[in-house]
Amino acid sequence: MTKYFYLITILFCLVLISQSCKKDTTSPENDSALFALISQSGYIYYSGTPGITSGVGNSPHGFERVRFNAIAQSALDSSGKLPIGNSFPTGSVIVKEVYTSATGSINQYAVMKKDPASSVAGNSYEWAEFKTDGSATFSTGKKGNGCISCHSSSTNRDLVRTFDLH
Predict the structure, then answer these.
(1) Tens digit of pLDDT per residue, the chain (166 long)?
(2) Of 138, 85, 137, 144, nearest to 114 (Cα)?
(3) For the chain, how long is the longest CA-to-CA vector?
(4) Which residues make Cβ contacts (< 8 Å) with residue 6, sequence separation at least 6?
(5) Taking Cα atoms as reference points, which of 31, 23, 9, 12 lies closest to residue 128?
(6) Are 92 and 69 in contact (CB under 8 A)?
(7) Alpha-carbon Rg for the chain in angstroms
(8) SS3 for 108?
């Protein structure tokens, strides 16, 4: 009987130790840094959607408007699109502003940042969604799990679906 007690105690301790060593899947530092980037100046809105548009296809984002930082802009062609087969350079930030309605206010940001070296990158991007107060509703620590499958269906435009949908 005592033998089983010790065995169970040892197994319990091993389970506790292994659980405490698991990597944290949230990434508050990355989330905060990524949210800070979206309020910087120098972004331009995608020219294919001059205003707020409704979500297309199976988009979970609803009413939206997409903008690009200066690094991402450098990869766009004269029509404002990323040419098929091209990639955004490292440091590119693509922000989808999600609105409550076509004339409503922003209630969420969906963000992609190209950073293949990041420990939280999924398919070379950091992925996150934020409320307007900066709190993450989808953390970078998830590495795009839940985003990449839809974004992979783009027509070879570096996981950005906007060009194919609008």
Answers:
(1) 566 544 454 544 444 444 433 344 457 789 999 999 999 999 999 998 878 888 766 677 788 999 999 999 999 999 999 999 999 999 999 999 999 998 999 999 999 999 999 999 999 999 999 999 999 999 999 999 999 988 887 677 898 888 767 6
(2) 144
(3) 78
(4) none
(5) 31
(6) yes
(7) 20
(8) strand
